[in-house]
Amino acid sequence: MTERDQLQRVLGLGDVVLLWISSVIGSGIFLLPGIAAESMGPAALVPLGVAGGLCVLIALCFAEVSSRFDRTGGAYLFASEAFGGFAGFSVGWMAWWVRVIAWAALANGFALALLPLVGDVPAWFDEAVAASLVVVLGGINLYGARESAAVMRVFNVLKLAPLALFVVIGVLHVEGGGFEPFAPHGYGSLADTTMLLLWAFVGFESIPIPAGEIRDPGRTVPLAILVVMAVVTVVYALVFVVAVGTYEGLAGSENPVAESASAFMGPVGATLVAAGIAISIFGTKAVQALVTPRCAYALAERGQAPAALGWVHANRRTPTVAILLTTGITLGLTLSGTFAELAVISVVGRFFEYIATCVAVPVFRARDRADAEPGAATAVGPARFRLPLGPLVPLLATVLCVALLIETDPDKLIAGGAAFALGIPFYVAWGRRSAAAATARS
Fold first, then answer.
1. For the segment 259-274, what is each residue's pLDDT rounded down to a tens digit?
2. 235, 163 in Cβ contact below 8 A?
3. Percent helix, strand, coil in the chain (nearest 5)?
4. All residues at 6 or more sequence positions from 69 whose CB lies less than 8 Å from its CB, including other chains
5. pLDDT in tens, 227-285
6. Is the peptide bond before 181 cis (omega within 30 degrees of 0)?
7. Residue 81 main-chain phi, psi, to 5 deg
8. How many Cβ atoms are within 10 Å of 422's Cβ, its own excluded?
9. Residues contacting residue 175 through CB under 8 Å, at least 6 positions apart
10. What is the DSSP letter of 382?
11. What is the C-alpha end-to-end distance of the chain, expressed in Å?
């Protein structure tokens, strides 16, 4: 039975846009402005723009490549089709672990975000809340993609409301003196600050993963990617401008947006933003609960993971075994706290997806030319969205990704390399012997 017969296409454009605005706008925009301002002052707007610009370039590459596919998998599927079994498995393996770790980290982050709202609580409160959240969202995800989307729509509205209030009221209190001097520490930390702010934008690369449950994914996914990146970039710029222009103590602040809101909205504003942080993390976590099991499902669907992970519930049309396994591993990491040490893998893991997809653009275009010859067989669908400026966008995006990796802490690269190496035995066990069959099924 093919995926088209198993998974149910229940997500429309509005669902996808709201889901991934929720995925991208997490805790980062609430917490990172203080760190960035400490490093560069108001000039942190420059690396914010660089990070946003890079993510837009990468997102454009994802938009073109994803417009060719209607199956679950995202960057894993793209790499498999463009470069073969081992490259695809490597991207899929890293993508799954990155999201498992992120899900565990967000669970603990949500518990911490609740503390300002609930006051003094017993020592076991954090772990109980974090674990309960993993189990609850895993359960909702088991029930169906439509139900998961409904939960996320509600929390997306609740998440954006405090940010909108912060921006609308805050722009009326912005003072130009907050931007002087603009670059008190110069631009020597531009690369490091860009790398820091880049992670406030990540999440858009997950949009194509559940394509098997999205209606008309060839059109919906690329359009959703572009809408999400446009909204997120504008929101981030406005939040940072308000924070700089209204709060003198921004540099080094651990909770800069809440403290800025308190400066011009009083205690009520600070409470609203604190609630917004908790809701924001919950919404992002809900998206992780939807997407992460689909990474494991995609590996199994192509024969590169145990077949049981590809089992779909007959009535609910959800990848039940993949959801249960992923939820269980996430719960273990959440309770053990080891995700903090493993989180460095996310640096290398996400760039696996970014670079592979950017390089896949010219590869698929070359195949288009070959497929146009008489008698040629088309391996994947034609692009329904095509990047402007020829090869310039994927080339520039790839160069910038590599440049940022070069600037990354070597310890993070080593940790990411170790995670990659850990997957090789699994590839030998499942991927190598079935790669040819999986490719033939495509």
1. 888 888 888 877 877 7
2. yes
3. 75, 0, 25
4. 77, 78, 81, 208, 211, 217, 218, 380, 381
5. 888 888 888 889 889 988 888 888 887 778 878 888 888 888 778 777 877 777 777 77
6. yes
7. -75, -35
8. 12
9. 245, 246
10. P
11. 13
| Residue 380 per-residue DSSP state | S
Please enumerate in sequence order all residues whose Cβ is within 8 A of that of 87, keeping only pairs 6 or more positions apart, or say none: 79, 80, 356
**For tokens 């145990």, what's the residue?**
306
Q: Count Cβ neighbours within 10 Å for each residue of 368-383 and write b for 16 or more, e otherwise.
A: beeeeeeeeeeebeeb
How far is residue 53's CA from residue 51's CA, in Å, rounded to a whole number? Answer: 5
Phi-psi category of residue 403: left, alpha or beta, with phi > 0 → left and psi -120 to 50 → alpha: alpha
For residue 120 the two structure tokens come to 């003094």
Query: pTM here?
Result: 0.76
Beta bridge partners of 11: 214
- Quote the CA–CA distance of 279 and 87 in Å, as a whole number: 37
C-beta separation of 310 from 319 below 8 A: yes
Cα-only R_g, the chain: 22
**Cis amide linkage into residue 425, ω under 30° from 0:** no
Note the pLDDT of residue 438: 46
Tell me if 89 sits within 8 A of 431, measured CB to CB. Answer: yes
Say how far apart CA 91 and CA 74 lie, in whole Å. 10
Question: What residues does 207 pair with on adjacent strands?
Answer: none
Nearest to 170 by CA among 277, 259, 276: 259
What dihedral angle (degrees, nearest 10) is formed by the CA atoms of 275, 204, 91, 381? 150
CB 47 within 8 A of CB 194: yes
